[in-house]
Amino acid sequence: xxxxxxxxxxxxxxxxxxxxxxxxxxxxxxxxxEEALSYYDSLLNIxxxxxxxxxxxxYVYLVYLxxxxxxxxxxxxVLQLDPTSVNALFNKGRTYEQMGDFINAxxxxxxxxxxxxxxxxxxxxxxxxxxxxxxxxxxxxxxDSFIQFIVYYFEIGNVVKLCFDSxxxxxxxxxxxxxxxxxxxxxxxxx
Length: 191
Fold this sequence. Notes:
Blueprint: H1 2-12, H2 17-29, H3 33-46, H4 51-65, H5 68-81, H6 86-98, H7 102-115, H8 120-153, E1 160-164, E2 168-172, E3 179-180, E4 185-186
Antiparallel strand pairs: 1-2, 3-4
Helix pairs in contact: 1-2, 2-3, 3-4, 4-5, 4-6, 5-6, 6-7, 7-8
């Protein structure tokens, strides 16, 4: 019903970009993000420096499509045109956070709080990221200790013998370590 209303309104007043903008917003919020992007693009053909249109494209890429690179491009463009856009800066931080780049995300959130100390979304994000950074710091301490243990007790590249309680024996040719940032896993493989 709403789609037909918007299409009818656009047919009656085709040059009214407010109707097109509202329709694109409706589309993005109701499960049609790709279609919303096409309407934002048509609006940007008419007004290429409109920060609302560019911002909404970035939001669609970030929230609905998960395309972090495109989202960053859009938010950077908004910030180039309007350096005071707190929403674009915050969502740039969200994009970095979604990419797992917590250092850049935290830096952006701190920048926001410097000028807007009561901006609750940035406060919440800082707290969330601080927990992750603490986890990874502890994880890397563990990994560093583990690697030191491996290097100290084993001759990497040779067959080695591990004995625990003089009962269980393990043989490895080579021990490798990999960490997966998303899973936080450590793997030792027998090659």
